[in-house]
Amino acid sequence: MGTGAGKLLELGQTLPHLRWQGADTEAAMLAEARKRPSLRQTPLHHLTPHAPLPFPDAQFDAVTFCSVLFLLPDPTPLLAEAWRILRPNGRLIALTPTGSKGTPGIMRTIGWHAPNWSFFLWRQMTAGSGRRWAQQETLATFARQHGALYEKKTVFHGLAAVEWVQVG
Ligand SMILES: C[S@@+](CC[C@H](N)C(=O)[O-])C[C@H]1O[C@@H](n2cnc3c(N)ncnc32)[C@H](O)[C@@H]1O
Question: What is the DSSP secondary-structure string of 42-95?
């Protein structure tokens, strides 16, 4: 969900036992994803913002949000829709920047190499909303409200967190 230019989907192609679909509200992002040769067979869905997702109930084993939920003013309607389309034991999985390190810390972690500068900028732009997301504990609350399992783990040397909520 929020597949953007399709990088995660492309990585997903290296796991041949998984069948992926992508969805995004931005046609331009999906157009970028469609340029990737590895995604020629992957269904990519153009979503209407605030509309129900165009999928039947209980269709997916997992719905992933890579740097998506923490950017939304109100992620709850999208979460509810993602929950609806999960099968029993299915999972919502979210990756979110934590914004937890200052500039020296992050540069020590990722190194002063030219290819890392876009990551550095991305981190600077998202640090505030990443920290807000962590404080709000939106997914933990969502899990409690649904009687679901919840786990959180920091990754990338503390620069991001993965959270998952599992349907009982
Ligand atoms: C920061 S980008 C992340 C893209 C990609 N997941 C990645 O990690 O490279 C956030 C994406 O979420 C999409 N998005 C925003 N609101 C959305 C919504 N309600 N439903 C689905 N996608 C949404 C945006 O269009 C954008 O492509």
Answer: S-EEEPPTTSPPSS-TT-EEEEEEES-GGGSS--HHHHHHHHHTEEEEEEEEEE
